[in-house]
Amino acid sequence: LMHLTRKLIEIRTMLLSIDQSDTLKLPSIVVIGSQSSGKSSVLESIVGHEFLPKGNNMVTRRPIELTLVHTPPSAGKPSEEYGEFPALGLGKVKSFSEIQRVLTDLNLAVPADQAVSNDPIDLRIYSPNVPDLTMIDLPGYVQIASMDQPESLREKISDLCNRYIQEPNLILAVCAADVDLANSPALRASRKVDPLGLRTIGVVTKMDLVPPEQGASILAGNRYPLHLGYVGVISKSAGAKPGTIVRQAEADFFSNNRAAFGATNSLMVGTDTLRKRLMDVLESSMASSLHSITNAVQLELEEATYQFKVQYNDRRISAESYVAETMDALKARFKEATQQFKKPIIRQKLKAMLDDKVMDVLEQLYWLEKRTPELSDIAADPKIKPQDVDAFWQHKLEAASSLLTKSGVGRDATLLVADGLRGLIDSIAAGEPFNHHPSTADRLIEFSHAILRDRIGVTADQVENCIKPYKYEVEVDPREWEIGRTQSVDLFEKEVTMCETKLKDIRKKVGGSRRLGYLIGYVRSLEQEDKERRAKAKAAREPPPPPLPLENYKYPAAQVLDARQALLYNDRLSVLKLRLAALKSKRCRAGPDNDSLCPEAFLNVVADKLAYTSTMFINIELLDQFFYQFPREIDSRLLYDLDRKEIVQFASENPAVKAHLDLQERKDKLEEVMKQLTSLSTLRTDPQPAQRRN
Ligand code: GDP
Fold first, then answer.
1. Is this complex's ipTM strictly greater than 0.95?
2. CA neighbours closer than 13 Å in the CB half-sphere of residue 12
3. pLDDT greater than 70 at residue 691
4. Nearest to 39 by CA among 204, 209, 255
5. How far is the CA of 245 from the centre of ligand 1 (A)?
6. C-alpha–C-alpha distance, residues 491 and 579, integer Å
7. Using CA atoms, how far apart are residues 312 and 664, in angstroms rounded to an integer?
8. Quick one: pLDDT at residue 232?
9. What is the pLDDT of residue 353?
10. Average of pLDDT values for 46-58?
11. How far is the CA of 205 from the centre of ligand 1 (A)?
């Protein structure tokens, strides 16, 4: 039968880990008593060591779930004695004063304003000298609230005790012999939940402090009968040094007073009797719970099995498999996304960037140049041979080309591609499933940005170096020229459309083209006046006059500003149209000989060559390197770095995965418990209930 309690204690621990609900509960012995009733001394004498927190200032602030595991000597060698705090991972704690220290720290960690906490401390003690028992030590009832203890403390403690003394637990009500039992808060509380004392054992401490006859009469329990009876103990003797446990003194006391205590067989005295009694009662209580708990576990198991089938189709997962799948998915996702970084796409993007640069160069050197309309005239005049064109235009073209090639293409092109990669990583990190794993997402971003940072400098230099020849000379063949020319025509047409759209918007905004016409006329007249006033001031050697203040405008200032914008677009449009005509002219179509007359076509070819070369080297220096390193970094920084605890932590960050794992674990544990329960009932072929004394 010894075997049974022990097994059931194991099962009880497993059930506690499955859930804290009341359906799946095997009994434990709950120890209650008022402060100083001798509660700690009794527990310590059962364990045979001092290990509970001591001090004047109410040191038990959290319930202690104490599991005692009897370890019989093996092969003639006494087995070792140690404690374990499963939640703390301290391993075997072999010294009881160390256990005491840990318990004290855990208790003192409860904030003073809370005073008591409902969160139990799990402590297991393995020893050849303890019986197989589970006991729960609770804070002692407070008799007189003291200054430094909050008002509500008394209530909090009794709430906590009430929660634990419910069925199926057994109650160990500790009372001191020298205090009237009528005043025992422990007995009072137990009577409320167990009026007949069917699951309450009374422990009367300090038997040495009252005359033997008086002690015996308490134990007889006539005044406050308990079905399971009272046990009288002495766990500290009045004279003994603090810290000594007084087995011998106790034995001597009861044998010296055999007259009082041995008179009838029914009086139970001594710590050994108490231990035996607790074992018997716990065992028989557990045995009688066996049937109902087996049923309850069966039901829970069926439910969990059903849910597992319905919700997950019996698919088993593990935290490890989730991590591995997530990383594989990440690599796959990344690989798929790298399609956007194929050479033709990169080249196209770089070309677009360079087209913008070309437009800037054209604006700077040609559109703002007063002589630019001449270019169209020359182009339209077949008599002027290419070699007769003013050298001015040749210089201008060279300046434009060099402005473009020296605009920092290496750096800009590299950054453009690197930004694309960053954007890709950032969007992966922000999406499923990394939205559940913020710290992993951060690490992902961090290391991929680090790879990029490493490569950007080298790549930019390499690209810049490779486009260097174009800074000196660009050779253009007729085929390239024609492509460049038609692309320029396209770009200009787009630009024209863009300007026209803007103009249309402005027209609509100010209220029609007539209105815009007035406004533009007004702006022109303003400009004219301004010019005249400045000229006058200059002639009179006066400082230039300030422009007309906004509030003096004939029209609303915002509209005047719109009209100014419209004027700019108008000017831009006339240049663009002029240049478009030139680009489409015979001269421009004839080929690269006329490059100085058609700078747009020439610069487009240059841009294309720059884009081509940049793409090649960015591909080698940045993309290939990144695509090689990235999956390896995933392995080394995200995957291999994780220990078991972090893997579990990672998996449980994802709510769906956590729910799956929780249910699976619950089902597994219930299966295991069920297996053990079944093996127990076959083991108990003789279902004889443990005898009850009394
Ligand atoms: P707790 O506050 O209920 O845990 O009580 P303790 O175990 O700390 O005991 C309170 C006081 O009573 C301590 O000073 C103990 O030494 C003393 N005490 C406990 N048990 C006995 C006993 O059986 N006989 C005597 N004489 N004193 C005891």
1. yes
2. 29
3. no
4. 204
5. 11
6. 12
7. 9
8. 92
9. 95
10. 81
11. 8
- Residue from 635, 610, 336, 629 nearest 455 by CA: 629
Rounded distance from Cα 41 to ligand 1 centre (Å): 6
Distance CA 375, CA 360 (A): 19
List the beta bridge partners of residue 170: 29
Q: Which residues contact 244 (CB under 8 A, 6 or more apart)?
A: none
Q: Which residue has the tokens 């329960």?
A: 677
Token readout for 236 is 């500290």
Pocket of ligand 1 (CB under 6 A): 33, 35-41, 140, 205-206, 208-209, 234-238
- How close is the Cα of 77 to the center of ligand 1, in Å? 34
Ligand 1 atom closest to the Cα of residue 34 is 3
DSSP character string of 504-534:
HHHHHHHTSHHHHHHHHHHHHHHHHHHHHHH
Pairing of the two strands 133-137 and 170-176: unpaired
Q: Read off the tokens for 230.
A: 């009272």
Substitution candidate for ligand 1 out of 35, 36, 44, 60 with most atoms within 8 A of CB: 36
Rounded (5°) CA angle 234-137-49: 50
The pLDDT tens digits of the residues spanning 480-501 come to 999 999 999 999 999 999 999 9
Residue 277 corresponds to which tokens in the numbers above? 């009694």
Rounded to two decimals, the pTM is 0.66
Position 680 scores a pLDDT of: 79
Ligand 1 atom nearest residue 35's Cα: 2
E strands, 128-243, in order: 133-137, 170-176, 200-205, 230-232
Q: How far apart are the first and last CA of the chain?
A: 20
Q: Which residues of 228-245 are buried (b: 16+ CB within 10 A; e: fewer)?
A: bbbbbbbbbbeeeeeeeb
Share of the chain above pLDDT 90, in %: 49
- 39-47 and 271-312 helices, crossing angle to 10°: 80
Whole-angstrom Cα distance, residue 278 to residue 276?
A: 5
Burial class (CB in 10 A: 0-12, 13-18, 19+), 17: middle
Residue 517 phi, psi dihedral angles, 5° rounding: -60, -45
Q: How far apart are CA 247 and CA 158, in angstroms?
A: 32
How is residue 406 annotated by DSSP?
A: T
Residue 615 CB partners (closer than 8 Å, separation 6+): 343, 346, 347, 350, 413
Per residue in 600-634, pLDDT (tens digit) is: 999 999 999 999 999 999 999 999 999 999 989 88
Q: Please give the single-letter amino acid code of residue 566.
A: A
